[in-house]
Amino acid sequence: MRYDISDEAYTTHEHDVVVIGAGGAGLRAAIAASQEGASVALVCKSMLGKAHTVMAEGGAAAALANKDPRDNWKVHFRDTMKGGKYLNDWRMAVIHAQQAPDRIRELETWGAVFDRTPKGLTSQRNFGGHTYPRLAHIGDATGLELIRTLQEKGVHMGMDVFMEYTVRRLFTKDGEVTGCFAYDRNDGSLHLFKAKSIILATGGITRCWAVCSGSWEYTGEGHALAYWAGAEIGDMEFVQFHPTGMIWPPSVKGILVTEGVRGEGGMLTNSEGKRFMFDYIPEMYADEFADTEKEALEWVDEVISGKLATKRRPPELLTRDVVAKAINSERDAGRASEHGGAYLDISWRTPEDIKKKLPGMYHQFKELAAVDITTTKMEVGPTAHYVMGGVKVNPESQESTISGLYAAGEAATGLHGANRLGGNSLSDLIVFGKIAGESAASRAAAMNGFTEIPEDEIADVISETLAPFAREEGENPAAVVEDLREMMQEKVGIIRTGKLLQEALKDLDLLEARAEITSPGGSRIYNPGWHQALELGAMIDVSRMCALAALEREESRGGHTRDDFPVPDHSHWGKVNSVISLSEDGSMNIEHTTYPPIDEEFKALLDAEDLHEEGA
Amino acid sequence: MSEDVTFRVFRGVGDAHGEALGKMVDYTVEMDEGMVVLDVIHRIQAEHAPDLSCRWNCKAGKCGSCSAEVNGMPRLMCMTRMEDIMEETPEGEPVTVKPMQAFPITKDLVTDLSWAYEMNKKMVPVNGPEELDWEFKQEEADRIQEFRACIECMLCVNTCHVLREHQKFDEFAGPRFFVRLAGLEMHPLDTESRIPEIKEDFGLGYCNITKCCTEVCPAGINITDNAIIPLKERVVTEYYDPLAMIARKLGLKQ
């Protein structure tokens, strides 16, 4: 079927639950909702099995205690809160730590095959900020295993899958979600989805930075759709720059190098050959990390030989925010590697071990950079990787501030606070994807019928969707996207200042004006220029959320560093989270709120001196 | 040290049957150090043809989205370095880029892969234990972790002559799905047998082990030797083993 560029015809679909996004969270939610008896539509921008989850490498964190019996959910909860610099929603951190082990084991009943311990249990590896080896993994391709397992389970659950569809708008009536509007990227056809519940599992936003580990998909539509519909969006100043992305050659800049390299004993060095991470151990972690190379090496020896660690961990395994900033500081001090990053060396381990535990990294460097990591150091540097911020949700149900609208995974906020621990993302997806799917299905079951969606609202989104075709003489949308990404890299990057953030907000207004008149040309059939012209709206608004929230937070904490406010402020900023919403007049509103006080039984699990309580 | 490169890219759509309606179009762009084929395609989109269609995601050989035929060879565009392409392309000739030829064409470099989605639904999934409590050894995992590395790029399906030349898409599951079936059949926690449908519905017999699929697999899976041949052996044992045949005739075995 060919659609003329001005054809406004659309098809209507009705489903109890519409899940937007088919990565780990979306698939797990769709499986849960189907199991509860709901009719489910799974709507996704790429083909099934290609979402970002497939790129996750190191593993999924769960306190299975298979490698170290000292581990349990309480330690995992404590590590997650500490890594998040205590801005996490502690209720989500409890649920996550308690439920992750069963979600991982469940995957194996559905066909996943994780690496084993000598006793035949799911093996676990060390990762930054986790006290014990905790990440279930398969080599360095854990995301592939997770998405394939969920995909293979999902296709047998009776759900309808709408592949290569982009959702343009959510509809609400009286504060309740009623449906959404999408177009098919393949043929350009238009689709109205009526729904009783909608789950946003759209992943993140990091395509807004020039150096990022994400694909074209990471343009923040979920965050923007929720915001435009009136939901609250939290913690948008917190963006995780993964310390180790590839930096050379230029065309691979940003591609992820798994933290698993450091978990397997990888060492970071500067141009002088010094293991610099010993100079960057924060006070709050001083007791837990080795302060000499000797002790760090002894820890690695213990771990590789399968013993329980008695030494303290190497500082390369500090949290990602700390390691990324350390690499940045070494570069600023003139001690960068040849192409402006740091060296990461795993070549001291045997080639067999490297190829078994890190096969993806071996091939990635060999084929893309002509570097053999079994003999040569890698060159790495920070890359925009993950947004801690997202849709504010109820921790028990994953429901947003709009009734019937749920969010899970990277699209939601709460679990990770100011900085996410590696490995906590994959377990986040399956724990909260399941909860969101169950909640959405049970809400749908209690409702009678679908709500009518006004024709004028439908006509409005159709005209907005087709508008780029009517525009001539505008720029190629790719040019605006490129300028946006360069601007965000420079002004809303790892190190921020009030002045740069104010400039960023002004630049975004100018970019928005340019975006509104881009002309992609071509037809409605699989037209990347048209798709990009439409994605720009979300990219600009999520970039604005980051810049605004970063400007407001006058301190440095986790994935937010202000050169003009370089230290954490525990008395005020350490206790409040930013909340962004759409004002009546269409402007972006920001305020700061707090989570309910933590229950004493959970508070007792945290490090008392970290909490900076008055009188403590 | 940058130099120009000319790409000759298929531009066009499929007719009602997915047959190509279009032509090869030349684009010349500048090339930087370390570029892969996909980078050149992106540069053509940015500088000349915003509506040039191509799929991609991870850009690191993990998702299997950007399959195409580059200089006639099926490859992932994200893992094919221009350095190597320039070496194999005759001086003064353009680099040709076409969509996978075995599948119906959607537009330009994008093909219709809905067959694969439907085929996946026909695979009987793992029937694992109810209780969340079991053990299996790394040696057992090793056998199928190779199969689990499949990124579903469909380059093997595109190359297999049973599908590419003879278009037996209705009778033959193709190499990707024999890898999937082998992974299911050898799964340490699985209790199902899929041998009857592997023989009848999925047409394993059509494969005459020419190993073309194995040669193009970017994940390095030994498709023919480790997946297809063991499945053929299981079919033989099930259907043609004399003792099993007698047992079946006597009603001792289904």
What structural keywords apply?
heterodimer; A: 616 residues; alpha/beta; FAD/NAD(P)-binding domain; Flavocytochrome C3, Chain A, domain 1; Methane Monooxygenase Hydroxylase, Chain G, domain 1; seven-stranded mixed beta sheet; four-stranded antiparallel beta sheet; 16 helices; B: 254 residues; alpha+beta; Ubiquitin-like (UB roll); Fumarate Reductase Iron-sulfur Protein, Chain B, domain 2; 2 domains; two-stranded antiparallel ribbon; 7 strands; elongated
Describe the model:
The complex is a heterodimer of chains A (616) and B (254). Chain A has helices at residues 24-35, 73-83, 90-109, 142-154, 221-228, 260-263, 293-304, 320-332, 351-357, 359-369, 424-445, 455-470, 477-491, 498-515, 528-552, 600-603; strands at residues 10-20, 40-44, 60-61, 124-125, 135-136, 160-163, 165-173, 176-184, 190-200, 233-234, 239-246, 267-269, 342-345, 378-387, 390-391, 405-407, 495-496, 561-562, 577-582, 588-593. Chain A has 616 residues and is α/β, with parallel strands linked by helices. Chain A has three domains: 10-238 and 388-445, 3-Layer(bba) Sandwich (FAD/NAD(P)-binding domain); 242-384, Flavocytochrome C3, Chain A, domain 1, CATH 3.90.700.10; 467-570, Up-down Bundle (Methane Monooxygenase Hydroxylase, Chain G, domain 1). In chain A, the strands form five sheets. In chain A, strands 1, 2, 6, 7, 8, 9 and 16 form a seven-stranded mixed sheet that branches. In chain A, helix 1 (24-35) links the parallel strand 1 and strand 2. The longest helix of chain A is centred in the C-terminal third of the chain and has 25 residues, at 528-552. The mean pLDDT of chain A is 96. In chain B, a hairpin with a 5-residue loop joins strand 1 (3-14) and strand 2 (20-31). Helices cover 37% and strands 16% of the residues of chain B. Chain B is elongated. Chain B has a five-stranded mixed sheet with strand order 2-1-5-3-4. A two-stranded antiparallel sheet of chain B has the order 6-7. By secondary structure, chain B is α+β, with helices and mostly antiparallel strands. Chain B starts with a strand and ends in a 5-residue tail after the last helix. Chain B folds into two domains: 3-111, Beta-grasp domain (Ubiquitin-like (UB roll)), CATH 3.10.20.30; 114-249, Fumarate Reductase Iron-sulfur Protein, Chain B, domain 2, CATH 1.10.1060.10. Chain B contains eleven helices and seven strands. Classes of the chains: A alpha/beta (616), B alpha+beta (254). Chains A and B meet through helix 3, helix 4, helix 10, helix 13 and helix 15 of A and helix 1, helix 3 and helix 4 of B.
